[in-house]
Specification:
Number of helices: 15
Radius of gyration: 32 Å
Number of domains: 2
Length: 399
């Protein structure tokens, strides 16, 4: 791996942190937000700190040979701790239990980091190794123990997280959280492969005394952890970004689907001045505004809608195989279409006249849409039958 293989994911993760920072700051008192911040920060830092050019600069700046290795181990340990804490808060449960487990993991991580620092301080590592420190110093006292201890801890954490994510995902229904957990299983599986390959390379260095198998650590394991880091971050971000993205895509789809009905009902806007939206209004606000305008226009059109026509259209839709709910939606769309078509015919033949309402009160003519039929679905059906011949145009009802 060259330097770009480290710096590109570091930049992407840092960008994600910058994007999420305003939200994380607003909810900074939330343990989950603090965990997300810690994950994004440490994952970005570990790629920066692990890049060979950074390793050389840090060693030179601090003046201690191979101090970068200790720093990388500490950051990775902090990342693992933040991951476990976030998973515990995702899973939920009694608040006191979560706090107790969180304190234990933080204490265990702090203890591990203290042991790493102690072993490194006792080590004699004069030769700077930017890429193969794990295997080069595998048989060196103290630092060899630090390397093995770190790899064993990392292996244990990856295994624990994989088991927790897998068991949790199995009890969840389809949703963004389950997708995120499934991705995390894959991401931590790759990270587990990283630890196992490094342990294998270290073991072979012990057994053979040579560096024939060092590529397992320097190349294969490093490639796995790079991919695994990206997959893991995707797993953490999917449950956060997924619902946000899905809600906006749904709002955009609804906004577009409502357009035929919204335009067709424009003459029934009423005497009031329509509320104007700011240019900066989000798509969810625009979709809600359009749905509200449709509902208001339908209220104005309600006295002209034929209940007999609605019943006939529903019977026709049910005979065509629609379920009762869908048949009601089709019937509403057909009734609105018929009323608008009849209004258009009257206007063309007698420009000075308008379609007279029936003797029924407007409340009795309010479309079923206003009683719970989804505006988007009505618009979809309306746009399909608009101009078609599902039912004929209605004539005005009379007393």
């Amino acid at each position: 791996m060259d330097s770009t293989d480290y710096y590109i994911p570091a930049f992407a993760l840092g960008l994600a942190l910058v994007v999420k920072l305003p939200d994380l700051w607003r909810t900074r008192h939330s343990p989950m937000s603090r965990s997300v911040f810690g994950i994004l920060l440490t994952s970005s830092l570990v790629f920066v700190a692990g890049a060979p050019p950074t390793v050389g600069r840090v060693n030179s700046l601090i003046g201690i040979s191979n101090i970068s290795a200790l720093i990388v181990y500490c950051i990775l340990s902090a990342f693992s701790c933040a991951s476990l804490v976030l998973l515990m808060h995702w899973r939920g449960g009694p608040e006191e239990v979560i706090r107790r487990h969180t304190r234990r993991w933080i204490a265990a991580t702090g203890g591990a980091i203290a042991v790493y620092c102690g072993l490194f301080a006792l080590s004699d590592v004069p030769v700077e190794r930017r890429r193969d420190l794990d295997t080069y110093y595998a048989t060196t006292p103290y630092i060899g123990a630090m390397i093995v201890l770190y790899l064993l801890c990392h292996t244990a954490i990856c295994t624990i997280v994989m088991i927790k994510c897998w068991s949790w995902a199995r009890v969840l229904g389809a949703g963004w959280t389950r997708k995120g957990l499934s991705i995390l299983v894959a991401g931590y599986g790759l990270s587990l492969g990283y630890s196992l390959l490094k342990l294998l390379a270290v073991g072979l260095r012990w057994a053979t005394g040579g560096g024939r198998w060092d590529y397992l650590s320097t190349d294969a394991a490093t490639a796995l952890v790079a991919v695994g880091g990206g997959v893991t971050m995707l797993g953490f971000l999917v449950p956060v970004i997924g619902p946000w993205t899905s809600a906006r895509l749904h709002a955009w789809r609804s906004y577009r689907l409502m357009e035929p009905l919204w335009r067709a009902l424009e003459p029934w806007n009423g005497p009031g001045t329509p509320m104007k939206l700011r240019r900066s209004a989000g798509i969810q606000v625009r979709a809600t505004h359009r749905a509200t305008e449709i509902a208001d226009r339908l209220l104005n059109l309600a006295p002209y809608l034929s209940s007999e026509h609605r019943a006939a259209a529903q019977r026709y839709a049910e005979s065509e195989g629609y379920d009762p709910v869908a048949a009601r939606v089709v019937a509403e769309a057909a009734t609105i279409h018929a009323a608008l078509a009849a209004q258009a015919d009257v206007t063309l033949q007698h420009p000075d006249r308008t379609l007279e309402p029936s003797g029924e009160r407007p409340a009795e003519r309010t479309p079923a849409l206003l009683a719970g039929i989804h505006v988007t679905e009505l618009s979809r059906h309306f746009s399909k039958i608009n101009g078609a011949h599902l039912v004929g145009a209605a004539t005005p009802e009379s007393n």
